[in-house]
Amino acid sequence: MKTLVIYDSLHGNTEKVARAIGEGIAQDVEVISIKDAGTENLSDYELVVFGAPTHGGRPKPEAKAFLDKIPPGALKNVKVAAFDTRAIAEKQKFLLKLLIGMIGYAAPKIAKSLTSKGGSLPVEPEGFFVEDTKGPLKEGELERARKWGEGLGV
Q1: CA separation, residue 29 to residues 81, 85, 111 (Å)
Q2: pLDDT at residue 152 is higher than 90
Q3: Which pLDDT score, from 0 to 100, does residue 153 have?
Q4: FRET pair for 12, CA 20 to 30 Å: which of 18, 20, 60, 70?
Q5: Closest CA to 60 of 70, 72, 50
């Protein structure tokens, strides 16, 4: 299955997860930063995976701008998947934990954007945990990302 994994990364954690997902997909996969990605040929792929860090319950502004540039219907007949990197809510102070519960994470918002452009979502959006804002990733997250990637060939 011809696959494109696009990621936005601030501290390198989301890039690591994207590359691990690509390893899980294993064949005919390209993993690129949004800085190197375009929105015009997305229909050339059978699966497009998009990931970004969670900032204030949503993807970073650069990731949102990229998603907004995807033309309507550009993902028709394309499977899509969404992921994010996020802080571990249980490790946060009460108010931040409450805020996270209210505003959520980036992956569901990314998925909604991709499906609004015509994509079909074969799997639920996924979140991968970082220990702190700058990382590192929680132990075992890269292996979990590889396994998630393996399941995207559905």
Answers
A1: 14, 21, 20
A2: yes
A3: 72
A4: 70
A5: 50
In a 3-state reduction of DSSP, which class is residue 76? coil
CA distance 77 to 110: 18
| This prediction's pTM | 0.93
Contact (CB, 8 A) for 53 and 8: yes
Residue 25's identity, in one-letter code, is I
154 SS3 class: coil
Which two structure tokens, joined as six digits, stand for 44? 């050339």
Radius of gyration for the alpha carbons in the chain, expressed in angstroms and rounded: 15
Q: Which residue has the tokens 């979990």?
A: 144
Domains of the chain by start residue, with CATH: 3-153 (3.40.50.360)
